[in-house]
Amino acid sequence: MATAMKAVQKNTASTEDLAAQVETLRADLSKLTETMTAMGKNAKDSAIHAASDKAAQLRDSAADKAETARLQAMELQGQANDFVKNQPATALGIAAGVGFLVGFLTMRK
User: Fold this and answer.
1) Taking the alpha carbons of 10, 16, 20, 23 in that order, is the dihedral positive or negative?
2) How much is the average pLDDT of 95-101?
């Protein structure tokens, strides 16, 4: 009878140990879930910040290139105006030639 009592006590102790281990495991899983959630949020925030910075860089770069192109176009326009003022006959001949070429290329058969 004493042996049976010891076996029951041993099983009860094992069950209590197992319950304590399960509770510890449950707490560890909860902490792990919280940590993974925080890491995910940080990664998301970091990705959003990086994408926002890259978009701002691209926007600034595009604005700089557009301004450079605008300035070059204004310079070419000035050169064209000077050419027309200095050599009006040559400019008229070139314009006529370009007009004839465009008309010839777009003419339907």
Assistant:
1) positive
2) 93
